[in-house]
């Protein structure tokens, strides 16, 4: 019965996560249309006319966060394991990757991905929405470097006796890592990984430097066209705060579930 309830709760959590952000886009669009009017602001109609632009830009911000976040977790897991590999070339490559992407500014990485990649690989110029994919790749690589250190530290936090016990049962090194060590390391790594994802949502604003029409870029264009500086920045901050609040709610719930399972 408890297992059935846990499965149902997990399904409801996942459903809530899937539904939450599309609903958030509707709330953002409606809020931008109506809140200035309810407050009796003289520029209310200007915001109402641009509400859909804000919603579309927020959608791009969320897509950047989700795609680069998933890729960053995959890349970070592979790199974190490689840093602990007994095969020196794997350790060297993983350590070099982490050193480069943690040691250089994210904005430089985005600019390099957008401006240098077409020079190195001219065929990417023909890729549709390149101004989306270039910062997405840069964000994913940056996230992967930070996640790699989280995964590495989480694996090292698992007592060595766990590995020895798994090997004594006849499991290979790969099987021991996949079946015994990683599931425990995931529970340890959830809090810092969650923090990285929330930070990633805000870091997507740097994509504006290459012209990606995400939230920060849309707000900046709106400000330039209307000269409503303070209202523009307050709107931007409110939308980011709204999104991070939703994300923090679900990630805190995820963390709580993993803590409950580990008891």
UniProtKB/TrEMBL annotation:
GO molecular function: transmembrane transporter activity
Name assigned to this protein: Amino acid ABC transporter permease
Transmembrane segments: 12-32, 62-84, 96-121, 230-251
Main subcellular location: membrane
Keywords: Amino-acid transport, Cell membrane, Membrane, Transmembrane, Transmembrane helix, Transport
Signal sequence residues: none
Domain ABC transmembrane type-1: 58-251
Superkingdom of the source species: Bacteria
Recorded family membership: Belongs to the binding-protein-dependent transport system permease family. HisMQ subfamily.
UniProt key word Cell cycle: no
